[in-house]
Structure formats: structure tokens, C-alpha cells
Amino acid sequence: MLTLNDSIKYLKGVGEKRADYFKKLDIFTPLDLLYHFPRDYTDYSNPIKIADAVSDEYSVIKGTLLQKMREANIRHGLTIYKAIFSDGETDFTVVFYNNRYAFEALKENEEYYLYGKVTGGFLRREISSPNVLKGNTEELFQPVYHLTEGVTAQFIQNCIKQALLIADNELYDYVPKEILEEHNLCVLPFALRNIHFPKDEKALEISRKRLSFDELFLLQLGMLYLRGRNRELSGYQMKEKNISPFEKSLPFSLTNAQKKSVKEIISDMCKNVPMNRLLQGDVGSGKTAVAAAACYFCYLNGCQSALMAPTEILAVQHYNTLKVFLEPLGVSVCLLIGSLTPKQKNTIKEEILQGKYSVVTGTHALVQQSTEFKSLGLVITDEQHRFGVNQRAALADKGNNPHTLVMSATPIPRTLGLIIYGDLDISVLNELPKGRKEIKTYAVTGKLRERAFGFIKKQLDEGRQGYIVCPMIEESDSDLIAVKSYYEKLKDGAFKGYSLGLLHGKLSAAEKDRVMSAFKSGDIQLLISTTVIEVGVDVPNATVMAIENSDRFGLSQLHQLRGRVGRGEHQSFCILITDNVTPEIKERLEIMSATSDGFKIAEEDMKMRGCGDFFGERQHGLPPMKIASLDSEMLSVSQKCAKQIVEKDSSLKAYPKLKKAVDRLFEKNGENGLN
């Protein structure tokens, strides 16, 4: 008997080929199908007469098929099928393009609901490629799904109905009954049936409420479980040590926010449970100095520290910075990256195991099985949103429950932080070091592009460097500027005679590193790049950035990009170029011009775009929000319920069904559950 966790290929009509189509929608089992929620609904319950339909707008018409016309082959690859309908008062034409299946399914003298764009005048009205529903159907509130090649709307509906039949015998409710009753939540089978095929709008609302709760509740429960499990571990309890030599050796004074964060980190490391802390700071807020202080404290306690960065060039930057901060104090620092020769790697690994190095910086090479530490007491991961929970854990496994510090330069709203970093305590760097000049930001239309280029050339002529950022790599039908052709155009045109470099995601890691190294050394004056520079190295001499098609980026991403300049002593500038000047876009770009506070920008970004699009391409290693909204009342309700459960039973042993649901959520997103 087919179960919800079997392969979807066993559903009637699917098979191997269509199962592959479903994979593109991240659907592998009947259970996945049930959680592939509709993106919208079409209400067929109130059809109108074709004569009353507004031209070029979508409408629901109920009509009887009078006659099918002969198919017409207009040109190679295009076949048109026409049928004549009547709504009882007016005849009209229905047109299908390359859809023989839909056309042949129609039967003369039978009634149908038709949903599509109505065109034509008073005398001749037409509907092109409508959604068709039989006139005798009782399900007049129809779901609209995200589809892919080989998966039609009707087919996915049929498959979901099969999955619901399986669910009738198998699906259980994992949320405790008392929580359902207290918060007036419906049972799960009702919610899943009515999210797909709602009886009416009220049933849909009830279902959406329950499923939104589940999404937030399970995620927060999982993160609280991880936090609780971490606190049950016994870690290396360090002793209070005087770190004033470190502070005195710095060529600058720590900000109050940095001092507070250092104090919080040291306090955690003196406890008998492993620290699990996020250091969240805006671009340029001085996270590396705080990390160096933690490494120094670890060294004073006779332990090693490891710092993992997402790219080699960023790892090299951290290595050089930590050497400057720590080696004068007697702390030995080494670098372990993939591009070293096998002999160099083996030598360094032997010396790490022997305890020769107190601080090890590197990339994923740090988590390889062959890398072992003598006494790993502190693990630091940089740019946390690039690493999933498991990658953090792999490095932590190199020691006996070492203290963990994760760093992120992506300011996020507090509500989103509670979700994403629910397993971590949080320290925030919300002020910039003294002397750091605020980046001047200007939003301009494409008409002023040449003037902007003139300004950039003036900066280059004064010995500075700059960036121009484009959203795409290759030409397409889109109006987005393609970085390759744009680079060639600038090299031979506006910036002829200047040294230009090209950087994009399709280059090899070695090639990216070569280009960034050339830019850092000053061999490249102007770097034409996609958003791969969003997480990049510090180039203090880079003082100007222009961002093409800036309307296509989220505010947080624009802020992250902008943070590549303003790293040195010179005044820096950011120019946002767009040809799309709608009131909404104007408002967004004005926010960018008005403030450099990443946390304020993040809040505004989430208000405007919602949490689902906040990160752009999902990088943070946690499940996306399919139905829940983070600005909803349900967030606080679900948080309260999750805390109540964990306080009663931190291991979730008394809630096996609930634990299984949480595990499945994390497994689905590549985190191997919570075990």
C-alpha cells in the first residue's frame, strides 16, 4: 500500500519521467505534494456574461460549447484550435494555442466555466487559452499552483487528490491537542484538504492560519531544541584572563559595542557549557577585531582557535589581519586553504596537531577529515549565512564541544533574527569605528550615466579605485545590463585607457581569486562585477561604486554591496543607477540615500518585500517560509508555544510525533534533522 513517504512515481499517472519533472518543484513524495501550497485561487462561483466582461481583463464566463472548428496550422510549431461557445445570450470564440489535449477534452452541448482574458469588441468577443472547468463541478474555488514543464494544472490537482486519499488513512496531528484548543486551530487533515480545495473562503482562512502556525512553530521549536541540546553539553570552561595587552596593542580604540561584545563572548567561554553565539555587525563595524580578542583569550587559556571563511581570498584577508593583531603578542597564526600544495597542507596539518599554531584560519579545508587539532577551544565561522547548521557542526566536531562564534555582516530585522538564529545568543555591533566616514549615496536615472562615469574617472585619476556592479552575466531578452558585454563596451569606450577587470560567478575559484588579488594590489583600477563581490575582501583604496539597474536589488543587498567601499581613510561614494523610476522604486532608493544604518535598511526592506524575498537566493540553510508571514501575530503565538513545549521537555521525548515533524523539516533542507 502506497504511503505518504514513498516515491511520487508510484502515484497513478506519474511514473519515472513525470517524477523527474516534479523534482524541479522540490516534490519527491506524496507528502511533499500536500505541502506544495497554491500560489493563488480562482473563484468560479460568480460567472458573468461575456457582454459584461471588461476587454483585456481576466473574467469567469459560463458557456455551452456549440461547435468545434477545424484546427489551423498557422506556421511551423504553432497550431490553433477554435471553438464557438454561448452564454445563453451571446456567442463567443475560445482559442487554444498548441493545446490539442484541452481542445479534444471539450464536448459539444456541454456547459463549462472558462477563466481567461477577454478580448474583442461588442460584435466579436474572444477568450484565449482559458482555464476550463466542467459546468457540473462542485469545487468552484480552484487552486492555482506553481508549475513546471510536464506538470499541468489539472495533472497536479489529480495527484494532490490522490495524496489526500492516502493522508486520510495515514496523516496524524503532531501538535498537542491543548495547543490546538487554546489557539483555536483546526486539525491538520482539515487544513491540508482545504488549503488545496477549500469549501469556501472561511475554510481557506482557517486552513491558512493552522499551516502558518505550523511553519513558524516547527522552525522555532527546532532552533530552541538545538539551543537546549547545546546547553546540555559540557564544554571547556575557561578561566578569567586579563586581555588588556590585546586592547593596548591595537592601533585604534574599540567601540563601546565591540567592548560589550567581547565581554559577552568571554563571559560565555567561562561557562561550563559551550558558547553558541552570533556576532552580527554592519559592514565595517569591526567584527574581526572582536574575533581576534576571542582568539587571544582562548590562547591565554592554552587552547587553539579556528576561523572558517567562505572563500580563499577572504580567508587570506582574515589571516593577514589576525597576524597583525596577534603575532606581536606571541600568538602564532597559520593559513590552511585548498590552493596550497599537498606538501604544504600536510606540513601545516601536522603542526596544527602538534599545537604549534594557536590560531588557524582557512576555508572548508578546515573541516576535512584529515585536519586534526591538539586542543580546539573556539570555532569561528565568518559570513554565517553562507554556511548551514551542519557545516558549523563539522568544524565544531574537531574539538571536544568547543565554543562557537558565528559572524555575519548581513543586518537582519529582529523578528527574522529570532527565526534564523534561534539556536544562538546574539551580540550586535551597531556602531562604526571612530574616524570611519559615511558613504555618500546618490540615486540617478540612466540619463545621468555619462556624468556618473565622469565622476568615477575623476576618482581613478586621483589614484583611487572603483566598482561597477551589474545584475546579470549573459545577454537575454531582459533589459538588465549583461556584465560581459558591458565590460567590453566600457573597456573600449567610456573607460578606454584605464585598467579594467571582470568578475562574475561563472569564473573558476582560482580565476576569481586572481582578479580580486589584482584589484587589491592596484593592478586593476575599475572592477566590473556581478554581485559576487557582496562578500569580499577589503580594498581600502576603493572609494566609488556604481550599481546598474539598482531597482532590481533588495535594499539589504544594495547596502551589502555598498559596504565594499568606504573601508579606508578617503571619502567614498555610491551611485545607484536606474531607468525605472516608479514611486515605489524612488522611495526605496531614497531610503538608501538617507541612511547607512544596515539594521534600519533591513527593517524597511522586509516591510517592502516581505521575509520570503529578504535573502534573494536562499543561503542561510533554513527552510523558506511557504505560507507564514513574519510580521503576523502568529509569530509571537508560535514562539510562546514552542517555548512552553521546550520548557516542559527539552529533549522532546514526550512528543515523538512532534520531534519527527521537526526532524523532517530540517532534513528536507539538508540539515539531517536534529539528531
Strand content: 15-25%
CATH class of the domain at 440-595: Alpha Beta
Q: Please report the number of helical segments.
A: 22
CATH topology of the domain at 440-595: Rossmann fold
Distance between the termini: 29 Å
Class per helix and strand makeup: alpha/beta
As a whole number of angstroms, the C-alpha radius of gyration is 29 Å
Short description:
By secondary structure, this protein is α/β, with parallel strands linked by helices.
Describe the fold and architecture.
The protein has 675 residues and is of the alpha/beta class. Among the domains are: 46-139, Nucleic acid-binding proteins (OB fold (Dihydrolipoamide Acetyltransferase, E2P)), CATH 2.40.50.140; 244-271 and 286-408, P-loop containing nucleotide triphosphate hydrolases (Rossmann fold); 440-595, Rossmann fold, CATH 3.40.50.300. The protein has 22 helices and 21 strands. Helix 6 packs across helix 7, helix 9 (256-269) packs parallel to helix 10 and helix 18 (555-562) runs antiparallel to helix 20 (598-609). The chain is globular and about 90 Å long.
